[in-house]
Amino acid sequence: MKAIVQDGYGSPYVLKLRDIAMPVVGDDGVLVRIRAASLNAADWHLMGRLPHLIGMLLRSSPGSVRGFDVAGTVETVGRKVTRFRPGDEVFGTGFGTCAEYVTTPEDRLAPKPRNLTFEQAAAIAVAGFTALQGLRDKAHVQPGQRVLIYGAGGGVGTFTVQIAEALGAHVTAVTSTRNLDLVRAIGADEVVDYTKEDFTRRGQRYDVLFDIGANRSFADCRHVLATNGTIVLAGAPKGLWAILARLLKAQLLSRFGGRRIASFLARGRHDDLIVLKELVESGKLSPVIDRQYPLSEVPDAVRYMGTGDARGKIVISVT
Fold this sequence. Notes:
CATH class of the largest domain: Alpha Beta
Oligomer: single chain
CATH superfamily of the largest domain: Medium-chain alcohol dehydrogenases, catalytic domain
Strand content: 25-35%
Number of strands: 15
Largest sheet: 7 strands, mixed
Distance between the termini: 12 Å
Shape: globular
Number of domains: 2
């Protein structure tokens, strides 16, 4: 099969389209014929040597084929699989989805939303998990609460705006000028153009600051928090050491600084895929896709993602 393989470390052009062996299906595995995949920040970070090695040690990125999101059709299933059979249309996550086929455990998949294309469905899982688990499980968002989303125009941000609205929150979206109409269209109650206004100096207070931008100090962020408010760290600064320093500081401030700061890594869960599927099918959630690339142009897609200019998700069309 054809797959995008990471051949070294550095720029997006270490990613090469190669012919590799088909994956082997285990007893609890599902072989998916991939129709579409999408990119996430992890695909960019893992081009560096140290993040890649740490990812392998943590078993978050075994192998060298890039991509985590997937949508496609079930080709074969392992003998212990009960949820799926060949021919089913599915979406979810796997390791190495910028390829023609991937194997993944059945609990990382769910039936594809019936009202979406494969390309739309492939945009959901990782960004959707991040938004849902950050808002529901870390911030415990309740109807009527005020949620500020910093970095609302990207892949995670566009999901967060919609899911926060679905949870009944009043949503303020902070983004650049070019994304203002987009975040309004997907349901934001208020918008702030960060190129013209500093959201930390508006005098407003929020129950939750969902921080995807990851480039403002915690001292600045505390200016916008209501009493007992929560900062959810959903984005990562550029550079491994900057990421580690920010996470360490968050832990210290959360423990000793009198503010609740929640950092987390989204986890692939079948039950949460079903929640996202139901939100889509009820009309409360719609993936926002900026650009679509063929499998052979994944290096260009990753380069574009690295510019920080993407509006919504970048999707890879495989077959």
